[in-house]
Design a protein that fits this description.
- The chain has 398 residues and is mostly beta strands.
- The protein contains 2 helices and 29 strands.
- Strands 1, 4, 7, 10, 13, 16, 18, 19, 21, 23, 25, 27 and 29 form a 13-stranded mixed β-sheet that branches.
Length: 398
């Protein structure tokens, strides 16, 4: 993912402009700096002291605690864990300046961390501002293999999170991970990396990826995301390593993609278990996208061939009001499992044309129960006779 802006739900529960005359206790990083000559180049311990003051601030102010980093401030810090639970009932961090990681991986010390900045077990956390997070991931890309690189920012087992307004550059791996969390709102974000950066994806993976591990994912609203280039917005991948993944009740609405490999995508590994259901892709615009619409139940990250066995159940998926240009001849690809099939796939008001003038587009469809209306590309799904009982809405004619 190379450029991603305005992520997840646009419903902001709290105003992003805070007035400090409401009983809130205000802290500043400078309050915790003992090196008055500012000779320190690593402010890791300063940030830990500030977090302790923020998290443990009992009885000082009735509106919770705020930590403010002003526009002209710049700090370098090593990997940080900001852990709760906190005594303070409401924690606010406003970043208008710049926070950066050491410029080379070896300067991170011996710490093996999954994320540069990690918030864990924190409740009622609001992070906002006009500032920048820069982990200098470009130095990781050429020297450390992908599985060993850290994410930039992670929220783990947190409740009631708002993350708003910041810009992130050049993540070593994906920019943001949210897992084991309840009620998270991410909005008005800009995530930037060069087009050829290796798998520097957005939220989770791809531009946004929704996975079902660690208890599943549900009730997710993604609105007004602009993404490109990259891999698009994905449900999955699901079921890798024969695990049981669940994703349900997802809305992806009013998003645009340019130069991406995929637009609206569901991807599951063959042999996996679980389900992906009640998913809506609506009001999507694609420009020069290889697969504007794709369900791939044989996803294997480069593997070949179909195998028998389990499959993640894909059902109740709607693609509605999708328009734009396809970079490949196959604009709609529904490659469903031959044993499980895809159920109740609805296509409505789809208008796709080739990015190459005069070229005709087609659809690839296998083992899917598709209901199509106002779709300008003919969709013909082939079924084996033994699968007909799975699709009662289809005529018993092949």
């Amino acid at each position: 993912m190379k450029c991603l802006k305005t992520l997840f739900s646009m419903i902001i529960i709290v105003s992003c402009h805070l007035e400090y005359g409401d009983g809130r206790r205000i802290l500043r990083i400078k309050d915790f700096i003992t090196d008055t000559n500012h000779k320190n180049v690593d402010y890791s311990q300063v940030f830990q002291k500030a977090w302790k003051g923020l998290c443990e601030g009992e009885g000082e102010g009735t509106g919770g605690s705020s930590l403010v980093i002003n526009e002209n401030e710049k700090y370098t810090i090593q990997p940080q864990l900001f852990e709760g639970p906190c005594v303070s009932s409401y924690i606010h961090i406003q970043i208008d300046g710049k926070i950066e990681a050491p410029k080379r991986p070896k300067q991170w010390g011996n710490k093996r961390t999954e994320s540069w900045l990690m918030f864990k077990n924190v409740e009622s956390l609001f992070i906002n501002g006009s500032g920048v997070l820069d982990p200098h991931g470009e130095t990781w890309w050429r020297s450390v293999r992908h599985s060993k690189r850290p994410r930039t920012l992670s929220f783990k087992q947190c409740t009631d999170i708002i993350y708003n307004g910041l810009t992130q550059y050049n993540s070593p791996k994906n920019h943001i991970s949210v897992y084991g969390c309840t009620n998270a709102t991410l909005s008005n974000l800009t995530l930037l990396a060069p087009e050829k950066s290796p798998n520097t994806d957005g939220i989770g993976d791809d531009c946004i990826a929704i996975t079902g591990e660690r208890g599943g994912s549900s009730d997710i609203n993604i609105t007004r995301v602009a993404c490109g280039p990259g891999h698009g917005i994905s449900i999955g991948s699901l079921g890798k390593g024969d695990i049981d993944d669940t994703v349900e009740n997802v809305i992806v609405r009013s998003c645009s993609f340019w130069g991406t490999q995929n637009g609206a995508r569901i991807k599951t590994w063959h042999g996996g278990k679980g389900l992906a259901k009640n998913i809506l892709f609506e009001n999507i615009t694609v420009t020069n996208t290889k697969y504007p619409i794709i369900i791939d139940q044989h996803y294997s990250n480069g593997g070949t061939g179909h195998v028998k066995g389990n499959a993640v159940k894909v059902s109740d998926v709607t693609f509605r009001y999708i328009e734009g240009t396809s970079a490949s001849k196959i604009a709609i690809k529904l490659d469903c499992d031959e044993n499980q099939g895809c159920h109740n796939i609805v296509m409505e008001h789809i208008k796709l044309t080739s990015a190459k003038p005069g070229k005709k587009l087609s659809a690839y469809c296998k083992f899917a129960d598709v209901k199509a209306s106002f779709v300008n590309i003919h969709i013909n799904c082939g079924l084996y006779p033994q699968l007909l009982p799975l699709f009662p809405s289809l005529p018993k004619i092949i």
